[in-house]
Amino acid sequence: VPSYPIPVVPVKWLLGSDLLGDGLTHESHRKDVEQVYLRCSEGSIEWMYPTGALIVNLRPNISPASYKHLTVCIKPFKDSAGANIYLEKTGELKLLVRDGERSPSRVYCFGYDQGGLFVEATPQQDISRKITGFQYELMSKGIAADLHTASAPCRPCSDTEVLLAVCTSDFVIRGSIQNVTNEAEEQESIIHVGVNKLYRQKSKVFQLTGESGNWRGQIKTLLECGVKPGDGDFLFTGRMHFGEARLGCAPRFKDFQRMYKEAKDKGLNPCEIGPD
């Protein structure tokens, strides 16, 4: 889903591509409900000193007929507090994130057609110490399923899946595993990658470092996948998710060369990319 700049919305809190609100201006209207309309496919909301409630309407600049194919994911800020976040449809509320819930890196996803977001402030003795915030992303249901199916990042990809990933991934690089850092609390592994060739990247995750001019970056995957440092080059592909590179297909580079050549000889490769 393409990302677009957020236009002016009918609320007075707007900073850059993210929404920032201040509930102290509504101190005398604790039961007020504000509606906000966001046109970006990704961004963040930060509600300072929350009182009353917010209805967050995500309205991406695509055909409404495509809405049924979208998944919405939200990731609360680490220190988010002061409000409950609900999924709302036709007046019925389903609790997504309870005020004060602490789940590092927890992401909550739901189908676009399942409802919208209703953010309700909880009673507080001192609201000036509270800030509710979260990032959000809209993506196709297929991509969301790949990102949030526990077994997907650990299962070896077929030749067809690798060739398709090369064409559709947010990043495609040839590189080696320099180190792996395991984060037990978040149940994730961080793969520190040395890049030998950069084919494509959507965001500047892989950058030149030091005077040597080497490209390096980090890719995250599930801890259960058991990734370890090793010799040899891999073809790393994957998606950007809340500003982080998430691992997709990652065959050894020599295996990619074989499957790419076989597909090219048969005229079946879905896109052109130099294998060397």
TrEMBL record:
Keywords: Disulfide bond, Hormone, Secreted, Signal. It comes from the Eukaryota. InterPro entries: Meteorin-like, TIMP-like_OB-fold. It is found in: Secreted. GO terms for biological process: energy homeostasis. GO terms for cellular component: extracellular space. Transmembrane segments: none annotated. GO terms for molecular function: hormone activity. Belongs to the meteorin family. This is Meteorin-like protein. The gene is METRNL.
